[in-house]
Specification:
alpha/beta; Rossmann fold; six-stranded parallel beta sheet; 6 strands; about 40% helix
Amino acid sequence: MKNLLVIYHSQSGGTERMAQAVYAGCQQDEDVETRFLRAFDATLDDLLWADGIIFGTPENFGYMSGALKDFFDRTFYPAEPHQINLPYCMFVSSGNDGTGAVREVDRIVKGYPLRKINDPLIIVGGFKDEHQQKCEEFGLGMAAGLSLGIF
């Protein structure tokens, strides 16, 4: 059994809807156990437990959410001796284009080091019903990749 960690932050609810749909997709793979945590609740122990990570954040002022940045601040240096070389991907809810948040997360996680396994899922302009399936497929793709040993 592989372990998949979904860490996200949402203030207005859009990213949370994405996160719930991504999590639903992860749960479709019975060979993967998934933890679903808000960024303020996730810890180094969760990182050490995980075989892969999905980050979720809104783009705020061209940057990731403060809560996700807080997670990185709390875990980066304690994680250093562990060389947590895990696959990751991310999803972003954005009013603009989401690239600022993606760029900054990618920059920080190289130091853990984490390995980016696919392009981010970016939804611009708010979560709509038609995004549900895309988010579920995103989560299932990561879970299936872990369970099959692709990542």
